[in-house]
Automatic annotation (TrEMBL):
Its main location: nucleus. This is Npp-8. The keyword Nucleus applies. It is found in: Nucleus. It comes from Pristionchus pacificus. Keywords: Nucleus, Transport. GO terms for cellular component: nuclear pore inner ring. Pfam families: Nucleoporin_C, Nucleoporin_N. Residues 62-451 form the Nucleoporin Nup133/Nup155-like N-terminal domain. Belongs to the non-repetitive/WGA-negative nucleoporin family. InterPro entries: Nucleoporin_Nup133/Nup155_C (IPR007187), Nucleoporin_Nup133/Nup155_N (IPR014908), Nucleoporin_Nup155 (IPR004870), Nucleoporin_Nup155_C_1 (IPR042533), Nucleoporin_Nup155_C_2 (IPR042537), Nucleoporin_Nup155_C_3 (IPR042538).
Length: 1298
């Protein structure tokens, strides 16, 4: 391919593909005989008038005449009873039977006459059949069926490469005829043999029964019980004269003596035989007369002389052609009218190729078209029409009829040179003698595989497939010789007229081109230019002059008026002048595929412009479409019933198409068929407008041809790739794929493969894997792919293949040293070709070799190569973008990083791909690691270090995410990555969650950024997220205070008091939470409110402390809020003490003492601890609950309450306080005893005081007790006397204390 085609544009290739598909659709539109013959079901009759027949170039040429061997004439002179003659085209043999002898000779090689005289009775008919599967030995290639006057015998035929054709003398099977006479015989492709005797169709059934031997019999396939009875009552003398088989539909047709037709259905699989319908000659004559509107006598249709099945590859609705003695062709279908109407293709396209055999079983037999022979019309071009026809062969494009007269004449009618019209030409073939047999052979260079119950796809008209079909030969066997006529293709005819010397060469070329049209003519010229045949070299100059001589340029046309707005005439006169030929008016037929193209620009006041390509453009596209037609929209492979993957075409045929495509590309380069861009000078006059349109049209044509040239190169490489895969066995090559993947690749069309290199890369990958462990095979494969598929398999691909082979060798190599050297070399090759790596496959192999750092290096290098513009970094930092390019590189880089993280996951899981058993011991720095778990940790650390050493920011990010998912925050902090802070910031900005904030402040703290850490911790405590528990917030505040105290930053230090205040609030909130949990309150409320954000003190008080009666916490809230209200504080204390006494009165007051002690520690130095209130309220509750007065001795100790203060409080409260204590005897006595108990504790422990303290306390005790004594002495009750006695005793003791 030239350098100008190095650039690649997927859009251009796809546009070219779409155009190729449209050209192929156009080819398909002419493929079905029914469409053209009946004009889409609108016409029942054709052949009347000159528009159906034309004079043209001579199409048929006698290739050779093979005379009957002279010795055979001598044997004919001695014939006693019977002689037959015929052809076996399958083995290239002609035969003659004389009495009981068979004579065979090759009409291709003119081989010696072979004689077989092993038949004991007179031979009536011969038939060549395929051997049935499982019956004969493999060396038997054919079966010769011999029908004599008494029996039918089967003889085996071998056809070796050296010994040629030979007949096994002993019959393999034999069945008696019981006096019946065989009229005709025929066989199917599966080996079934049918023959007729009188009006009955029989089958010769034979089979192998193993050790039981062989068996055979004749089975009546046409008679029913009712038919058998009526035949005895009224015998029917209408024997079957001819039997033919439609092997594409599995149908047998039988023609009777009276020209009736029987239809036998062999079933979908060809293993049945059921008589479906009989169409009488009277009905045929009636239908034909009705179709021709009675303009022709019934005798034109009364005598049918030959039946010709139309295979489904030529038409789906048309099943059969019957030729009459007048040369009239009657076309039949076996579909009912309602089904037939579904095949009226309104768009001219053929039926779908996915037709199933079940839908097309014969249900009836009806006449759908009558084709009258030339010469019937008085104004016919041909004065002599076929009359007295006695044998014929008819298909979709060729009809050969043998007629009797003064001398036998053969007429050949052909549609080859009129592919788009229902027009035929007629040629007379000169022969000598009576015609015994005729056969037409049309071979193809391409044979598509088929394994399904679907009908075979329609084949294109032979004109469009002449590039890959062989010349058609007509074999005519007469009593004197065998004539081989060749039906010359239009391309060969063009070669001949170009090669002619003399004055008339121009007229011949023009006549041919006139009949074919400009595009079809140019296609053939391009074919000659692309040919490398020696016979075409001398023709290329003339073909090139013709190709460029046609003054037909691309144009811009008005889609409304179809007016050409760019100048460019395409008259034949200029073409002829360029060839120095006489002038002829161009009146060729319309060209297929010349359609309006791409929508163009608009002009004010006129319709939109459309691009109309040139004929040369259409010819290039048409030629390519015809070359790739068999595969372009067909699956590349099919599956046999046993599940074997079979290529649609064998390797040599795929290669042939590829070579032809390459030739076309070379011709386009050599002859500059992709025009150069010309920018005409623009002016302001009217011409400039034409110049603009002309430039636009030329530009579009160039772009279109440019896309075609690219498509040609890609198609050729794809075909060569598949050739390689098929050569080595496509089934075996694709076994490494999954079953679904294999079926997907098999169902892929060539169009998909050629336009999507990714699909071809799957095949390349399978080929490489198929050859791994085979050094020689891998090298040969790599060289072949580099040579034939340089774009699909580049130099980098070859390096990858070599590297994979080295890795396979390393895996199999037991030596550690050798393995290391192999890995180093393989990694070097992989780095050179990193863009083409099958990354996952390469990583798997390196992991098996435990070359983890190499995996990291290759993955990071691949990520960088996939994103040269660093688009993924931009997306990561600035947020996602919607453009496809950015998203694609993000995906690609992510895939590379995923391999690294998956590798670490596998190392964490012993059951995964990487197992410690593969290599438990390894030398590292002189030491040996024995533990598999430790070894895996070491390897994971190596992988992480390899990533962290790189400058790939996204690789660091991928590693951080992997570690974060596994909760390994400490490893993230230890990474010392320069990208860590930015990653954390980005994740936090995206709402990544608390875990990223948690790592962030630790990162700040670890790196000495105490101020940032404190601020971030403060931010964390304010987050309204349930993820952060209250205990976490307490911890954050504590750490924040420590960090703030450790920094000299003024802003951070001013934060300390705020943090402490928040800490106090958090502690109060925690106290409420714990209290509520201990009480069994609703945990939902706790988790949502208290365990979330920090609440204001007011909310804590009003929502929790007050409603849930938490007086202690209320006091803490008052103090924390610096709120003082004496009445409220006193009420809280009363509530607190009352609750404590209610709960713990049974404990003797010990629990109350603990509570008061704790509260004294918290509030003792503040106004929030009202001592007088507390003491007197305790006195009241102790009296109420009957707690012994000794309790107050402990109380003074817990409250750090001086003895004098307590006595003073008791005395003052007694004298000036609540009168209850003076008026209630019990209360008075309790108060006095309380005072005595306190004084007695002083008396007993007075030594612990200093002398001055003791004297002072003694005085205060005496004063306090004296005040109580005065009141008691005035009372006379018994209870009071005992209390007074204790009081006076204590006073006496006090008096003695010094």
């Amino acid at each position: 391919m030239s350098k100008s085609f190095v650039e690649h544009s997927p859009d251009r290739v796809e546009n070219a593909n779409q155009m190729i598909c449209s050209y192929i659709d156009n080819i398909k539109s002419t493929a079905d005989l029914y469409v053209k013959l009946t004009e889409n079901g609108r016409s029942n009759v054709s052949g009347l008038g000159n528009r159906f027949y034309a004079k043209g170039v001579e199409e048929f040429f006698l290739e050779k005449r093979v005379p009957i061997p002279p010795e055979l004439y001598q044997e004919m002179d001695h014939m006693r009873s019977h002689l037959t003659m015929g052809l076996f085209p399958e083995v290239k043999r002609a035969y003659v039977t004389i009495d009981c002898d068979v004579y065979l000779w090759s009409y291709e090689a003119d081989a010696d006459l072979a004689i077989f005289d092993g038949v004991p009775n007179t031979i009536m008919k011969l038939c060549l059949a395929q051997p049935r599967t499982g019956v004969f030995q493999p060396h038997i290639t054919h079966v010769l069926v011999v029908a004599t006057v008494s029996d039918i015998m089967l003889f085996g035929i071998t056809n070796g490469a050296e010994e040629g054709l030979s007949l096994i003398p002993d019959p393999l099977f034999k069945v008696g005829l019981e006096g019946q006479m065989v009229k005709t015989m025929v066989s199917t492709k599966s080996g079934r043999i049918f023959f007729t005797a009188k009006e009955v169709l029989y089958e010769f059934e034979y089979q192998e029964k193993g050790w039981l031997g062989r068996s055979c019999k004749k089975v009546d396939k046409s008679s029913t019980l009712f038919g058998s009875i009526t035949s005895y009552i009224k015998p029917v003398a209408d024997g079957m004269e001819e039997v033919v088989v439609d092997c594409t539909r599995n149908i047998v047709y039988a023609l009777t003596t009276k020209s009736s037709i029987h239809v036998f259905d062999l079933g979908v699989n060809g293993d049945e035989c059921v008589k479906r319908v009989t169409l009488s000659v009277n009905q045929i004559m009636h239908d034909a007369t009705s179709m021709t509107q009675g303009q022709h006598e019934a005798s034109f249709f009364s005598t049918i002389v030959a039946l010709s099945p139309i295979p489904c590859t030529q038409s789906y609705p048309v099943y059969l052609v019957a030729t009459t003695s007048k040369g009239v062709r009657l076309y039949f279908t076996c579909l009912p009218k309602q089904s037939l109407s579904q095949h009226t293709y309104l768009d001219g396209s053929s039926a779908s190729n996915s037709m199933w055999m079940e839908e097309y079983r014969p249900q009836c037999l009806q006449l759908i078209h009558v084709r009258l022979s030339p010469g019937i019309c008085p104004s016919s071009l041909y004065s002599q029409a076929p009359q007295g026809v006695y044998t014929a062969h008819v298909d979709s494009t060729l009809s050969v009829m043998s007629t009797a007269g003064e001398r036998d004449t053969v007429f050949a009618l052909s549609n080859m040179y009129h592919p788009l019209e229902d027009v035929e030409t007629m040629n007379e073939l000169n022969i000598d003698g009576h015609v015994w047999a005729m056969s037409c052979e049309r071979g193809s260079k391409l044979e598509m595989a088929k394994y399904s119950n679907g009908l075979s796809p329609l084949s294109p008209h032979p004109f469009f497939s002449q590039h890959y079909t062989k010349d058609e030969h007509i074999l005519i066997f007469t009593t004197n010789a065998l004539y081989v006529y060749v039906h010359r293709s239009p391309l060969d005819t063009l070669r001949c007229v170009l090669a002619e010397k003399g004055r008339g060469e121009g007229e011949a070329v023009m006549e041919l081109c006139k009949s074919l049209g400009s595009v079809n003519s140019l296609v053939m010229m391009i074919s000659i230019l692309a040919s490398d045949a020696s016979s075409d070299i001398s023709l290329k100059d003339k073909a090139a002059r013709l190709l460029f001589g046609l003054k037909d340029e691309s144009e811009m046309i008005d889609s409304h008026t179809m007016r050409i707005v760019s100048p460019g005439e395409k008259n034949l006169s200029e073409w002829q002048n360029s060839m120095r030929l006489p002038t002829h008016k161009w009146c060729g037929q319309g060209d297929m595929g010349r359609k309006n193209g791409i929508d163009g620009i608009k002009r004010t006041g006129e319709g939109p412009l459309q691009w109309k390509p040139s004929a040369r453009h259409d010819a290039l596209y048409s030629y390519f479409a015809r070359l790739v037609f068999p595969l372009w929209n067909s699956p590349m492979a099919v599956f046999s019933p046993t599940g074997q993957m079979i290529p649609s075409l064998p390797a040599h045929q795929l290669e042939w198409i590829g070579v032809e495509v390459i030739k076309l590309g070379r011709a386009m380069d050599e002859y500059n068929l992709v025009p150069k861009m010309i920018n005409p000078k623009m002016t302001e006059d009217d011409t400039s407008l034409h110049a603009r349109f002309q430039s636009e049209a030329a530009s579009r044509e160039r772009q279109s041809l440019f896309g075609l040239r690219l498509l040609i190169s890609q198609t050729a490489e794809t075909l060569f790739l598949w050739t390689t895969a098929v050569t080595h066995g496509i089934h075996e090559v694709t076994l490494n794929m999954g079953e679904d993947a294999r079926r997907d690749i098999a169902n892929t069309r060539l169009a998909q493969l050629a336009t999507n290199p990714v699909l071809s890369s799957i095949v390349i990958k399978s080929l490489i894997e198929f050859f791994l462990n085979d050094d020689a095979g891998t090298k040969e494969l790599s060289e072949r792919l580099r040579r034939q598929c340089p774009n699909l398999y580049s130099k980098e691909d070859a390096l990858v293949t070599s590297a994979l082979e080295l890795l396979e060798r390393g895996i199999a190599c037991p030596s550690t040293g050798s393995s290391h050297r192999i890995i180093v070399e393989a990694v070097r090759l992989l780095k050179e070709s990193v863009s083409k790596l099958p990354l996952i496959q390469v990583a798997d192999k390196l992991i098996k070799l435990r070359a983890f750092e190499a995996v990291v290096d290759i993955c990071l290098l691949r990520a960088a190569r996939d994103d040269p513009k660093q688009l993924a970094i931009n997306v990561y930092r600035n947020g996602p973008k919607m453009d496809n390019e950015s998203m694609e590189v993000v995906r690609k880089r992510g895939a590379a990083y995923d391999i690294i993280t998956k590798m670490m996951d596998d190392l964490r899981c012993p059951s995964s791909t990487v197992t410690p058993n593969q290599r438990v011991r390894t030398e590292r720095g002189g030491g040996t690691v024995e533990s598999a778990a430790m070894f895996q940790d070491v390897e994971i650390d190596e992988i992480m270090n390899a990533v962290l050493k790189s400058e790939d920011e996204l690789a660091h990010v991928g590693l951080f995410r992997w570690l974060m998912m596994r909760g390994e925050k400490e490893k993230i902090l230890k990474s010392k990555s320069v990208y860590l802070e930015q990653w954390l910031s980005i994740e936090i900005s995206k709402g990544g969650g608390v875990k990223y904030l948690d790592v962030m402040w630790r990162y700040y703290e670890k790196n000495g950024l105490k101020g940032k850490a404190a601020k971030l911790l403060n931010r964390l405590t304010d987050c309204e997220l349930t993820e952060i528990s209250l205990s976490d917030r307490l911890s954050y505040l504590s750490h924040a205070i420590i960090c703030a105290q450790s920094t000299s930053d003024t802003e951070s230090r001013t934060l300390i008091q705020e943090l402490r205040d928040k800490l106090d609030v958090a502690q109060i909130q925690m106290a409420i939470k714990e209290t509520m949990e201990n009480r069994g309150q609703n945990e939902v409320v706790i988790s949502r409110e208290l365990n979330g954000r920090l609440l204001p003190l007011q909310d804590l008080c009003l929502k929790y402390a007050v409603p849930f009666r938490m007086p202690k916490i209320q006091l803490e809230i008052f103090k924390c809020a610096n709120y003082y209200d004496e009445e409220k504080i006193h009420n809280v204390w009363r509530q607190l003490l009352d609750r404590e006494f209610e709960v713990s009165c049974d404990s003797g007051g010990s629990l109350i003492l603990g509570t008061i002690s704790d509260l004294q520690c918290k509030f003792g130095e503040s106004n929030y601890f009202p001592t007088e209130l507390i003491v007197m309220h305790v006195v009241e509750r102790c009296f109420e609950y009957g707690i012994d007065s000794t309790f107050f001795v402990s109380l003074t100790s817990k409250m750090n309450l001086p003895l004098a203060t307590l006595l003073n409080l008791l005395s003052e409260h007694y004298r000036k306080g609540d009168p209850f204590w003076r008026e209630n005897g019990s209360a008075r006595d309790y108060m006095v005893q309380l005072a005595c108990t306190v004084v007695e504790d002083f008396i007993n422990n007075g030594r612990k005081f200093t002398d001055p303290q003791r004297i002072a306390l003694k005085s205060k005790c005496e004063v306090a007790l004296s005040r109580f004594a005065v009141d008691l002495r005035s009372l006379s009750s018994h209870a009071t006397s005992s209390v007074l006695a204790r009081l006076e005793r204590d006073l006496a003791i006090l008096a003695n204390i010094n």
